[in-house]
């Protein structure tokens, strides 16, 4: 069994970039029973208590199972007005990772808030084969269209979901009013040298995972590693559309806490992404690890509120 404590720090960091949020749970529990997947948000989050400064309880989220080429995709919709806020979780996470932020966003903005489970996560069916961010973007597109959400979207993406958002934004002109990327994977980071290093650092862990009993979590880790090199070399060449405003929230510690050289490359890539086009803003989540939604939720809330207000 692989556990994080047994991994060298650089390999932990590299594997964290593949599926950062899954690292502790999936690797520490490899060989766990098939049914021991992370909890999903199929049940509505409890409403926060009402206070004098609180406008009241948040509407309950409803589960919508969308058919996509014979597969089920789980979308969770909290009613509200336009613009619609869509939250896309990091690698290895399902929609439940946003549960604490959904009621806060709904209350602060009055917007409809949508979370969803990417293929193979939560209540959504798996897709055999390697991770394909363009196919994942197609899943998101299909789900939003089925829900009637075709414009004025503020798309919020953490970590690996940055790849989905980039391809979605390019394939769906006019749909996004803006985006907030939360320590997300962006094209400038994935140079040929960086991709080769990441593949070399993570290959031993992936090979060990392949020897373990097959679980949903393990399969997603392996799928992300399968074809990682070509997938991210292609992603490195993708450009963000200039007409879509975007705020990039970078963590202070980055996914590579403990590896100063890699941490610097991550921060440099974020700065390069913001500098590569107009209408882009860089914000630093001070003191936060890569898991900004949990470490610094107020930063995410503030930036999404700003983007939503600008979209009205």
From TrEMBL:
Alphabetically ordered keywords of this record: Hydrolase, Signal
Signal sequence coordinates: 1-28
Keyword Lipoprotein in record: no
Keyword set includes Hydrolase: yes
Annotated ranges, domain AB hydrolase-1: 85-302
Location of the region described as Disordered in the Swiss-Prot/TrEMBL record: 30-62
Alphabetized GO MF terms: hydrolase activity
Compositionally biased intervals (Low complexity): 30-53
InterPro entries tied to this protein: AB_hydrolase_1 (IPR000073), AB_hydrolase_fold (IPR029058), Carboxylesterase_BioH (IPR050228)
SUPFAM superfamilies tied to this protein: alpha/beta-Hydrolases
Name assigned to this protein: Alpha/beta hydrolase
